[in-house]
Specification:
Strand order of the largest sheet: 1-2
Order of helices and strands: HEEHEEEEHH
Distance between the termini: 27 Å
Largest sheet: 2 strands, antiparallel
Number of strands: 6
Mean pLDDT: 94
Strand content: 15-25%
Oligomer: single chain
Structural class: alpha+beta
Shape: globular
Amino acid sequence: MTRAIVERVRLRAGECCEYCGIPETDSGLRFHVEHIVARQHGGSDNDDNLALACPDCNWHKGTNLTGIDPDSGEVTLLFHPRRQPWPDHFYSDSPRIYGSSNCGRTTVWLLDMNSPIRLQHRKWLARLGEWPR
């Protein structure tokens, strides 16, 4: 992956995680340019398969394409930041993120978006005026 592609992905994402929405600039962490569909599943390095992800979201997502919807128990595709608008699948009442669709619920659960440390981080960002996204 070239430096130009990485910068393009960062700018397109507004330097925010495309899954949970936290800004990279206030996180103290270096975000990852991740493959939405992992290479082992046939994913490419094309822009339409790349997303900016905070380390927590990227580590929890791993190479997963699906998860189990915590409400229905059905296997469900995860959120795809290039094909699906965030507000169609998620909402926040700060600091908690909720899934408003089966895809959103599954993604929130699998990526552990509401772990205690992540909730605390978003509370801190809200006090700075950096959350919600």
